[in-house]
Design goal:
By secondary structure, this protein is an alpha/beta fold. The chain has four helices and three strands; from the N terminus they run βαβαβαα. The chain has one domain (3-106): 3-Layer(aba) Sandwich (Rossmann fold), CATH 3.40.50.620. Helices cover 40% and strands 16% of the residues. A three-stranded parallel beta sheet has the order 1-2-3, sandwiched between helices. It is globular.
Length: 108
């Protein structure tokens, strides 16, 4: 079974998030959606509210998705789900540059 993890704050869930999830489900059998906190941002909604909004918005995919909050390192979450793919959405070139610099820093 092909699995992937889609992390984000989802504060709130947007049509863009839903689009990425639906695209990922065309590639992967199961998608683990992990609601995370960003210490650099003040959340509008609680963790529980964000998880609930995602579950409600995605209920037609219940058998293929799992939505939960996670406080630890993303790497540990991915390993716990026995996955090796992380799905990310990019809004602008600056998002790509930020994601790319994180990857190159972590592999150094």
């Amino acid at each position: 079974m092909k699995t992937a993890v889609y992390p984000g704050t989802f504060d709130p869930v947007t049509n863009g998030h839903i689009d990425i999830i639906e695209r990922a489900l065309k590639i992967f059998d199961k998608l683990f959606i992990v609601v995370a906190d960003n210490p650099q941002k003040t959340s509008t909604f609680t963790k529980k509210e964000r998880v609930g909004m995602l579950k409600e918005a995605l209920k037609k995919y219940n058998g293929r998705i799992e939505v939960e909050h996670y406080d630890g390192l993303l790497l540990n979450y991915v390993k716990s789900k026995k996955s090796n793919v992380v799905v990310r959405g990019l809004r602008a070139i600056s998002d790509f540059e930020s994601e790319f610099s994180r990857v190159t820093q972590s592999s150094s």
